[in-house]
Write a structure and sequence with these properties.
Structural class: alpha+beta
Distance between the termini: 93 Å
Helix content: 25-40%
Strand order of the largest sheet: 3-4-5-8-11-13-14-15
Number of strands: 15
Order of helices and strands: HHEEEEEEEEEEEEEEE
Largest sheet: 8 strands, antiparallel, barrel
Strand content: 35-45%
Radius of gyration: 37 Å
Number of domains: 2
């Protein structure tokens, strides 16, 4: 009995010793990891000091630029300009001092205490402390996020361009709608454009340029379709009733327009902008590019079956495309007209030029 008791006690003591050893090792690991993590957080906060100084200098630069603009326009005197610049410099210097003081306070708290997590957002609003069995925990509620310095004068903006409408052709000896359905033929344009103010102190004239994909579709009338015979492309009668006949040319072009119209100037302390929202505008220009695809689609019945054919070939269409275009409207919406100076088909007996009319939307 005594032997069994001794063995049980010995096993129990061994278990206690192993548990204590494991706890000590875990505690050593926690202390080591905690020390490393503290060093990492302090390093991040030190780098944040440099970011604060850079940010405040950028704000000061924008403010001084705005003051110089007012001086050039003779809205203020040289004495007033110098005074405003001095006040702006003093304000930014005070901001740097106060914001870095907040960072130094955080670093001191990290160095002085054990903690679980510290939020590194610079604009601290509140510090909260709690005590647990593992030490002192610090909760820092984030304040204002890092602000992005606005560009003082943004002369170039980006627009998404979308246009849709009816499409047809001017054909020698014919009127619009003789060969192609007026409502069945259409066009779509999708592109990206940049708009740059031409003059330094006026937004009355803007240069608009970019790139666009144009899809021009013709729907031949009276069950006709396009046939290519060597260097000749012509409309021919289909041997049966056509449920659908479509001929589509896809172009990649570079449009360039001069845009005219009034705008509203919006002035802030650190930047200004020109807004054309709800303002009248007119654009005059043109485009040039390349034909990147030609396709004919036919739908008909053959032996009681519905047949759909898509034929991709050149059809002697012009490789290089160029033309004139104009738009007139208010805000983002305009009436849009474009005319291809190149012929749809090259080296043909009868010339025909693509023409489009529709609505254009500039989403800036």
């Amino acid at each position: 009995m005594n032997t069994i008791t001794k063995q049980v006690v010995l096993i129990f003591l061994c278990l206690i010793a192993n548990t204590i050893s494991a706890q000590e090792q875990q505690q050593d690991s926690i202390i080591t990891d905690n020390h490393t993590f503290k060093r990492m957080q302090i390093s991040k906060l030190e780098k944040l000091k440099d970011q604060i100084q850079t940010e405040e200098r950028e704000f000061l630069k924008s403010e001084v630029e705005a003051i110089n603009i007012r001086l050039e326009k003779k809205e203020i005197t040289q004495f007033e300009a110098d005074k405003l610049k001095q006040e702006a410099a003093q304000k930014r210097a005070a901001n740097i001092e106060d914001r870095i003081a907040i960072i130094d306070t955080k670093i001191a708290l990290i160095e002085r205490n054990e903690y679980k997590q510290v939020d590194l957002d610079e604009g601290t609003e509140e510090l909260a402390f709690s005590v647990g069995k593992d030490g002192l925990y610090i909760n820092i509620r984030p304040g204002e996020k890092k602000r992005k310095t606005p560009k003082f004068d943004k002369r170039t903006t980006t627009d998404l361009v979308f246009a849709i409408g009816i499409n047809n052709a001017f054909i020698d000896g014919e009127s619009i709608g003789d060969s192609y359905s007026v409502l069945g033929s259409g066009f779509v344009e999708l592109g990206l454009a940049w708009k740059t103010r031409v003059f330094q102190n006026s937004n009355a004239v803007r240069l608009k340029y970019g790139f666009s994909f144009q899809w021009n579709k013709f729907s031949p009338k009276d069950d006709r379709y396009f046939v290519q015979d060597g260097n000749t492309t012509m409309l021919d009668q289909f041997p049966s009733d056509l449920r659908e006949s479509e001929f589509r040319v896809t172009n990649l072009v570079v449009p360039i327009h001069f845009e005219f119209g009034p705008s509203k100037k919006i002035e802030k302390k650190t930047y200004f902008r020109y807004s054309t929202r709800k303002q009248f505008k007119i654009g005059i220009g043109g485009y040039a590019g390349f034909n990147i695809g030609t396709q004919q689609k036919l739908r008909f019945k053959e032996d009681g079956d519905r047949v759909k054919q898509k034929i991709k070939r050149n059809y002697n269409t012009s490789d290089f495309v160029y033309g004139l275009s104009t738009y007139i409207g208010v805000g983002n919406t305009s009436l849009y007209f474009k005319y291809d100076l190149n012929t749809v088909f090259k080296d043909q007996v009868t010339d025909q030029n693509n023409v489009s009319l529709g609505l254009r939307f500039d989403f800036d």
